[in-house]
Amino acid sequence: GYIIRAQQLLTMPQDAAELASYGDGGEERDNSIVGLIEDGCVVVDGEKIAWVGRWDERPAKVRRDGVDVFETAVAMPGWIDCHTHAVFAGERSREFAWRNAGKPYVEILEEGGGILNTVDAVREASGQALAEELIRRAFLSVRQGVTTLEVKSGYGLTTADEIKSLKAVQRAQKDVPCELVGCFLGAHAVPREYRERREAYVELVCEEMIPQVARGGYAAYCDVFCDRGAFSAEEAERILRCGQEHGMVARIHADEITDAGGALVAAKVGASSADHLEFVSQEGIEAMAEAGVVGVLMPAVNLFLGTIDHLAPARSLLDAGCEVALATDFNPGSAMTQDLGTILMLGCTLYKLTPGEALRSITAGAAKALRREDIGSIRAGARADVACFDVPHYRYLTYHFGQTHAEAVIYRGNFVYW
Ligand code: NIG
Ligand code: FE
């Protein structure tokens, strides 16, 4: 084993109930919600964290044995990018230019472009090629401090091509120093060949894709894009319930372009998260809070689509008692970025999150969106995923954007980047 000694150690306590009772709303509250320990110490044993606390209270055993000490300024749980579409082929810079010339995202999609253009490229690509691209991308995330990267399918839209994408995620896993979490998004768009018979596509997702994905162990999560131009609330509910019957955790792309009732579906079926939420209703927010659904917010989308005039109501979600997670939504159509550090900054400027709220949202909040208890917090027994940063204060991570500040990234106890 070895020890990490940090001037500021952020433990990110998981218990949200504890959070509400803390502090004055300012720096003191922030220190509480990130679980700040000044001059903190993490004892790593194998793949796990063995002990966490103050340096001067470290266990007698590690003092006696003289184990190696890695010193850093700020240490926190490895970052979790809990919503990406990182397994894709091709690119869509042409559409980016079209949008900037005035054509909305949803019109491009409804005319058979958008997602469906990436579907063409993914159907053409080999599983090997998809895996290789994903490996390259995962390394870029790791260098920022990411140790868990969620990756959705949804650009295949046939049983074979969806499974090809999810298998590419599993294949890439062998060659990357972070965890890749596969998520099945067969209901991302209605493919062109089903345009006139969308019910038949929903049928295919439920009767063929979900059972095969579940049986093969290709993904533990089932997601649906519920919106204008994609799937209705009724269709989404049917698909998510079907996924749940096959043991998958439900997640949903909700209320991104219109208030299509996605947040209500999330609450109704007991989804782990509802993601996007630019047009969520107050009723939807309250239902989410009641059902413990995490709100996953992805401000890069608004920046990239030029829609910063209509942002997800982050503060209302927090005030209602929802846990919030920030993510990149990395995809070639609506958020061509892997830069989670910039997302932290946008969380603060656009959503008015505090630095502590933003940093919680990519660790403890994101872990909750994935229903995971072994990651996202630094505590005894958790997986030893730790990101270490050379910055003057933890809040600096939300402020100096556009470059990595990681000086070491530890995944399962191993230094994978330093
Ligand atoms: O999360 N909203 C739906 N899906 C993606 C966009 C995918 C694409 O345009 O390729 C999203 O924004
Ligand atoms: Fe998405």
UniProtKB/TrEMBL annotation:
<keyword id="KW-0862">Zinc</keyword>
<comment type="pathway">
    <text>Amino-acid degradation; L-histidine degradation into L-glutamate; N-formimidoyl-L-glutamate from L-histidine: step 3/3.</text>
</comment>
<feature type="binding site">
    <location>
        <position position="334"/>
    </location>
    <ligand>
        <name>4-imidazolone-5-propanoate</name>
    </ligand>
</feature>
<feature type="binding site">
    <location>
        <position position="253"/>
    </location>
    <ligand>
        <name>Fe(3+)</name>
    </ligand>
</feature>
<comment type="similarity">
    <text>Belongs to the metallo-dependent hydrolases superfamily. HutI family.</text>
</comment>
<feature type="binding site">
    <location>
        <position position="333"/>
    </location>
    <ligand>
        <name>N-formimidoyl-L-glutamate</name>
    </ligand>
</feature>
<keyword id="KW-0369">Histidine metabolism</keyword>
<dbReference type="Pfam" id="PF07969">
    <property type="entry name" value="Amidohydro_3"/>
</dbReference>
<feature type="binding site">
    <location>
        <position position="188"/>
    </location>
    <ligand>
        <name>4-imidazolone-5-propanoate</name>
    </ligand>
</feature>
<feature type="binding site">
    <location>
        <position position="92"/>
    </location>
    <ligand>
        <name>4-imidazolone-5-propanoate</name>
    </ligand>
</feature>
<protein>
    <recommendedName>
        <fullName>Imidazolonepropionase</fullName>
        <ecNumber>3.5.2.7</ecNumber>
    </recommendedName>
</protein>
<feature type="domain" description="Amidohydrolase 3">
    <location>
        <begin position="119"/>
        <end position="417"/>
    </location>
</feature>
<feature type="binding site">
    <location>
        <position position="256"/>
    </location>
    <ligand>
        <name>4-imidazolone-5-propanoate</name>
    </ligand>
</feature>
<dbReference type="GO" id="GO:0008270">
    <property type="term" value="F:zinc ion binding"/>
</dbReference>
<comment type="function">
    <text>Catalyzes the hydrolytic cleavage of the carbon-nitrogen bond in imidazolone-5-propanoate to yield N-formimidoyl-L-glutamate. It is the third step in the universal histidine degradation pathway.</text>
</comment>
<feature type="binding site">
    <location>
        <position position="253"/>
    </location>
    <ligand>
        <name>Zn(2+)</name>
    </ligand>
</feature>
<keyword id="KW-0963">Cytoplasm</keyword>
<dbReference type="GO" id="GO:0005506">
    <property type="term" value="F:iron ion binding"/>
</dbReference>
<feature type="binding site">
    <location>
        <position position="331"/>
    </location>
    <ligand>
        <name>N-formimidoyl-L-glutamate</name>
    </ligand>
</feature>
<keyword id="KW-0378">Hydrolase</keyword>
<dbReference type="InterPro" id="IPR032466">
    <property type="entry name" value="Metal_Hydrolase"/>
</dbReference>
<dbReference type="InterPro" id="IPR011059">
    <property type="entry name" value="Metal-dep_hydrolase_composite"/>
</dbReference>
<feature type="binding site">
    <location>
        <position position="155"/>
    </location>
    <ligand>
        <name>4-imidazolone-5-propanoate</name>
    </ligand>
</feature>
<feature type="binding site">
    <location>
        <position position="155"/>
    </location>
    <ligand>
        <name>N-formimidoyl-L-glutamate</name>
    </ligand>
</feature>
<feature type="binding site">
    <location>
        <position position="329"/>
    </location>
    <ligand>
        <name>Zn(2+)</name>
    </ligand>
</feature>
<keyword id="KW-0408">Iron</keyword>
<dbReference type="GO" id="GO:0019556">
    <property type="term" value="P:L-histidine catabolic process to glutamate and formamide"/>
</dbReference>
<feature type="binding site">
    <location>
        <position position="83"/>
    </location>
    <ligand>
        <name>Zn(2+)</name>
    </ligand>
</feature>
<feature type="binding site">
    <location>
        <position position="85"/>
    </location>
    <ligand>
        <name>Zn(2+)</name>
    </ligand>
</feature>
<keyword id="KW-0479">Metal-binding</keyword>
<dbReference type="InterPro" id="IPR013108">
    <property type="entry name" value="Amidohydro_3"/>
</dbReference>
<dbReference type="InterPro" id="IPR005920">
    <property type="entry name" value="HutI"/>
</dbReference>
<feature type="binding site">
    <location>
        <position position="85"/>
    </location>
    <ligand>
        <name>Fe(3+)</name>
    </ligand>
</feature>
<dbReference type="GO" id="GO:0019557">
    <property type="term" value="P:L-histidine catabolic process to glutamate and formate"/>
</dbReference>
<dbReference type="GO" id="GO:0005737">
    <property type="term" value="C:cytoplasm"/>
</dbReference>
<feature type="binding site">
    <location>
        <position position="83"/>
    </location>
    <ligand>
        <name>Fe(3+)</name>
    </ligand>
</feature>
<dbReference type="GO" id="GO:0050480">
    <property type="term" value="F:imidazolonepropionase activity"/>
</dbReference>
<feature type="binding site">
    <location>
        <position position="329"/>
    </location>
    <ligand>
        <name>Fe(3+)</name>
    </ligand>
</feature>
